[in-house]
Amino acid sequence: MLFPDYRGRRVRASEGLRRMVRETRLTTDNLIYPLFAVSGKNVAEPIDALPGVYHYSVDNMVKASKEAFDAGIPAVIVFGIPDKKDPLGTQAYAKNGIVQKAVSEIKNKVPELVVITDVCLCQYTDHGHCGVVEKGVIDNDSSLDLLARTALSHVKAGADMVAPSDMMDGRVAEIRGLLDEEGFYETPIMSYAAKYCSSFYGPFREAAHSAPKFGDRRTYQMDPANIREAIREVTMDVEEGADIIMVKPALPYLDVISQVANEIDLPIAAYNVSGEYSMIKAAAKMGWLDGTKAMMEALTSIRRAGADMILTYFAMEAAEVLNKG
Ligand code: PBG
Fold this sequence. Notes:
By secondary structure, the chain is an alpha/beta fold. The chain has a single domain (26-323), classed as TIM Barrel (Alpha-Beta Barrel). It contains 11 helices and 12 strands. The protein has helices at residues 15-21, 58-70, 98-109, 140-157, 171-181, 202-208, 228-240, 254-263, 274-285, 291-305, 315-324; strands spanning 31-38, 44-47, 50-57, 75-80, 114-119, 132-134, 137-139, 161-164, 190-195, 244-248, 268-272, 309-312. Strands 1, 2, 3, 4, 5, 8, 9, 10, 11 and 12 form a 10-stranded mixed β-sheet that branches. The chain has a two-stranded antiparallel ribbon with strand order 6-7. Helix 8 (254-263) links the parallel strand 10 and strand 11. Helix 2 packs across helix 3 (98-109), helix 8 (254-263) runs parallel beside helix 10 and helix 9 packs antiparallel against helix 10. It is globular. It starts with 14 loop residues before the first helix and ends with a helix. Bound molecules: ligand PBG.
């Protein structure tokens, strides 16, 4: 059908019609809210590069979690900033580590909120890499046991789900094996399956004090130029036992989200990362675009690409917009 028989504008004429033909829905159910835990009491320290995001001590993190839950957000993902770092990242799997404490308090006070933990070593190692460094090289196999121990300690503290973000080969299987062995066979793994070596993590690394002290992450995170490799990475994680597959970042990788969603029958998550958030915030602050509209458009486009859920620093703000209707 061609013009004038077909007129696309007919179904765009009113808000009612637009609502009826809308193909993609964004609801608070789709949102996962990232939180950064630090030690201390009554701390809510703003993070410069992530306006509106804070370093919270556990007490304030519980408050923020409650607010998220009350706003209809089903889940948070907890990151920890430890007081001390060492070569083996021992605070990542310490029984009384910052994430372990935060998780157990949140589960105590907001039991129905799904608490996910980021499983990685980079915030905890003094060299800032996501695995163990041996002779200047990030060693895959000796990192696996530490990552699995980290995941187990999170689950023992009460985490509902663990999310390995390190990009070591074989870590999903290692984590699944240890969790099963310890009786946690019902605990799901959300794997950062296709995680790219991206400059869009810049603000996060400031927030998490996790920039690598030497080199970069190109030997383990993926080359932004590749998409077939993403399918391979995702397939491996599915075979190793992942329950939810993540693509990260989101906006510069919508094609990857789309292809993964078409090929994989597991739930798909996408991480709307720190740089994607801060870009919109900065432009809005300059008056160069409408921050709220840009936020909703960006989140909707990630859903349209095929993501079932979105990890985003916009979670609370988006929930506010959505709850207003
Ligand atoms: C830890 C981790 C990172 C992010 C999530 N988990 C940083 C990195 O890989 O350097 C980035 C999140 C963001 O930028 O919002 N490995």
